[in-house]
Amino acid sequence: MLRCTYFILSVVLLSGCISSEDGITNRTLDSFRGESACYNREIEPFTAVVDTHLHYRPFNGKAIPFDEMNAYLSKTSVRFVNVYGIGQMLPVNSSCSNYLKCPGIPVLPTTRNDFVNAENMVTSAPDNLHLTLSMTFADLSNPKPTIELMKLYEKRYPGLFHWMGEVNLVKQAQFNNHHVAASYQNIEQWNDFMAELRARNYPITIHSDIGNDKSPTLYLPLMERALARYPDNKIVWAHLGMSREQTKMKASDHIAILSRLLDAHSNLMLDISWRILDDYYFSQSNNQAKYVAFLNQYSTRILPGSDFVAFRNNTYKVYQDELNITGRIHKYLDDNAFRNIVLGENYFKLLNLDYQAPAICSSNE
């Protein structure tokens, strides 16, 4: 068991389990095993120790090499990561790297990225990070092949995958690229693979837009149906249901929807990944206090994430900026919420990991 000691260096209190790189003070992976030094919010990072929403693979083109992406993470506060691929990819013969700039080009579900991630894990798993592989291939509008593909994953990579998602229930951004929202009938057809996820105790992260600026709750009934139909599944709703198509919803209306569903569905969790939440909601005047109160109230139901996509041209600075922006609201959380969300306690419990978040230092420590 690692026990960290404190010492004074240039009148700054530091923990013996903390390393420093590029001026950023970080904890080791082992410092989350058993008892460790309390977390001093005044001198330690406000960014999360877990990134539950990180795409190691892009839609198309070259990715940041696996080892390099892990090196980026090692320079930040992050020690625990969900390794998403991207389940929907552009055609291999396409020169397009950003589907938004290529209307009409299909972006369709595939296993390609997941298998690359798995091979990288087999050959190059890092010692200083805890990585959780996720299956991102599932097409929720055509669910029939899902269960057989899950069996194939387990046959080829036994014990490597422990999550499903991010998968799309409805993603308006891809409507121009042949994406079709799942129907109520499709949701009924998820039964087999959702049962398998329950048997394995795997969470599933679902991207499901609430609506858009013209029709604020247009697609909300789809998520409501999924939650009602599969109440025993661990469902993570990505981005608090928001999208670039919906940037003007009143904070009070948004929070009321989320609160109602959290109260009704005990296995629902939310992730606060993607900078659109800060750009259009958290940082807007009169909104911050409302969202902080919401996150504090439901602190055991929230997961942090960057939603970074590992395109080859994205640098370490881009990742650190995304981590800072998506984590800005962390600064204003109370200590209980900070420990649950930012220091990973929710994530550890969700996956039954043998880690624990450190306690927050009191003012006299």
Walk me through the structure.
By secondary structure, this protein is an alpha/beta fold. The chain has one domain (46-350): TIM Barrel (Alpha-Beta Barrel), CATH 3.20.20.140. It has twelve helices and 15 strands. The protein has helices at residues 66-74, 112-124, 146-156, 184-188, 191-200, 220-229, 251-264, 276-282, 288-297, 316-327, 335-342, 345-350; strands at 6-9, 12-15, 18-21, 24-27, 50-55, 80-84, 88-89, 108-109, 130-135, 161-170, 204-208, 235-237, 268-271, 302-303, 308-309. The strands form four sheets. Strands 14-13-12-11-10-9-6-5-15 form a nine-stranded parallel β-sheet. Strands 1-2 form a two-stranded antiparallel sheet. A two-stranded antiparallel sheet has the order 3-4. 47% of the residues are buried. The model is unreliable at 1-16 and 18-24 (pLDDT under 50).
